[in-house]
Structures are given as C-alpha cells and as structure tokens.
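Project standup — Tuesday

K.O.: blocked on the structure for the chain from last sprint. Re-posting the sequence here as requested.
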Amino acid sequence: MSEQLESAMAVGKPLLLGLVIGVLGWWAALAWGFGWMSHDAADRLADHQTRTALVAAIAPECMARFERQADVPKAWKALNNASNNFTQTSFMKKGGWVVTKDQKIPSADFDAIANTCADKLLSMKQLGKTKMAAKATS
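H.V.: unblocked you, prediction finished:
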C-alpha cells in the first residue's frame, strides 16, 4: 500500500505545482490583462477619484469666495507669508473660504480642498484687478 501512496504522491506533486502555477497565471492575466482588482483596491481607487473630483469642483468656488472678500491683497499676503502647507490650509479653513456653511464635507476632503485652493491662489499673479507680488525667496 505504501508503494501506491508514494506513486500517487509522485503524480500529485507535479499536478499540484501545475495547479498553483495555473492559478497564479490566471490571476496575473485577470489583474494585468483585464484590469481586475481586489475589493479594497477598488475602494481605495474610488475614494481617490471621488476626492479628486470633489476638489476639482469646489476649489474654484473657494478661490472665488477668497477673491470676493473686502481686503484681498491683505489676505493674500497673509496666505503668502504662511510658512508651510499646514499653516496655509489652516488659514484657508479659518477664513471660511473653503466651503459654505451648508456644505457638509469630510475632514480629509476639506483639508484637500483648502490646500488646493491655497496653492492655486498663491500661483496667481493677479486677483481681480489687483496684481500680487510673489513671496521673496530667502
């Protein structure tokens, strides 16, 4: 009986190896050839695309609210003097330009909008009819 078991195992090893290689090959074909991805990867991709679309839609509104305030040059100068992205994002949030009071946006999206809005505002050479001077480099 042990000879039959050894014979079966000898046949089974290549079969098992072929099955494993076939499964891995099929998985690779699905992933790279047909664009298949795991549920978690699809969720992460969808979240990223949603955040990107939300930021693209709301950042111009943020910029418009910033431009409509009474003293644009003073606010722009304060934003320009902010030392880093965190400070700029905080400044935009405190100023109330990021979203209107009736808009409910998750915190991470809110920060992404504030950061994008600040970056775009700082890259502008002119806000309304006022020319902006770039930050002096040290």
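K.O.: great, moving the ticket to review. The chain has two domains: 1-36, 38-129. Residues 38-129 form one domain.
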